[in-house]
Specification:
This protein is mostly beta strands and 290 residues long. It folds into 2 domains: 101 residues, Ribonuclease Inhibitor (Leucine-rich repeat, LRR (right-handed beta-alpha superhelix)); 122 residues, Ribonuclease Inhibitor (Leucine-rich repeat, LRR (right-handed beta-alpha superhelix), Alpha-Beta Horseshoe), CATH 3.80.10.10. It has no helices and 22 strands. Keywords: Cell membrane, Glycoprotein, Leucine-rich repeat, Membrane, Repeat, Signal.
Length: 290
């Protein structure tokens, strides 16, 4: 495993490792590496399982030749200055399980070949300038545990196929332009711990199926245009410590059943059309209305 470049901060040093046939891991995060990622990175040994160049000063685009690393399991290029498109042939890296391209300046759509990476369990592309939609083929990620697409400029409806990712633990879609209703299939996310779909253009009512997320701890659906009542069944989500439904068009009364939430620390229902009394039993009696 390579973890040190002895003060050499030029990315061209990667070229010198192309003859290291037994090299399995290159972990050079936070090494102040600068320059453009050379196409020769694709000539590294095909036995390479991990390439981590995150948190450096890398510029330019992701070379197409990177897809030659067909046995790569983990690719980390996050927190650099990489621009341009996600390579359309990235799906050739069929062994990938972890893909982190977040915190760069990537643009354009998510290439369809990404959805060929059927072994993926971590997919981070947040804080870029990506556009377009999520493909119906996202259900190919049958083992996915963490998905972060926020914030970008993505604008599709939330497809029912997204809800087939039953092993998801973390879902972050905030600060995009997703439209339509929340899929009824959200109840399939029975292993979900964090869900943030705030600051989009979602509408319709909150489905009662949300209550099936019984180990969920963090729920943020704020800054959308949801209407209707707050589902009283939310009291089934006993692990919740944060509920943010602010900045919507929710109406009716605040369900008294929310008093059953023993772990709640943050409850923000502000800037809606709610009426009636504020529940104050149990844990909620420590809250001050604002």
């Amino acid at each position: 495993m390579l973890t040190n470049v002895s003060g050499n901060h030029e990315l061209s040093i990667l070229t010198s490792f192309t003859n290291c046939q037994l090299l399995e891991k290159v972990v050079l995060s936070q090494k102040h590496l600068n320059g453009i990622l050379p196409a020769s990175v694709g000539n590294l040994t095909t036995t390479l399982s991990e390439l981590d160049l995150s948190s450096n000063l890398i510029e330019g685009t992701i070379p197409l030749a990177l897809s030659n690393l067909i046995k790569l399991i983990a690719l980390g290029l996050s927190s650099n200055k990489i621009k341009g498109l996600i390579p359309p042939n990235i799906g050739h890296m069929h062994s990938l399980q972890m893909l982190s391209l977040d915190n760069n300046a990537l643009k354009g759509p998510i290439p369809l070949s990404v959805y060929l990476l059927v072994h993926m369990f971590i997919f981070y592309i947040e804080h870029n300038m990506l556009i377009g939609s999520i493909s119906i083929s996202i259900n190919n990620f049958t083992s996915l545990q963490a998905l972060d697409l926020s914030p970008n400029n993505l604008s599709s409806v939330l497809l029912p196929s997204l809800c087939e990712l039953k092993y998801l633990l973390e879902l972050y879609l905030q600060d995009n332009s997703f439209t339509g209703h929340l899929p009824l299939g959200l109840g399939n996310f029975t292993m979900m711990i964090d869900m943030d779909i705030s600051a989009n253009k979602l509408s319709g009512e909150l489905p009662a199926s949300l209550s099936k997320l019984q180990i969920l701890e963090y729920l943020n659906l704020s800054h959308n245009t949801f209407v209707g009542h707050i589902p009283k069944q939310l009291d089934h989500m006993l692990n919740l410590d944060t509920i943010d439904l602010s900045q919507n068009n929710l109406s009716g009364e605040i369900p008294k059943s929310l008093e059953k939430l023993q772990h709640i620390l943050v409850l923000d229902l502000s800037f809606n059309l709610l009426q009636g009394e504020i529940p104050s039993g149990r844990k909620l009696q420590t809250f001050l209305p604002s």
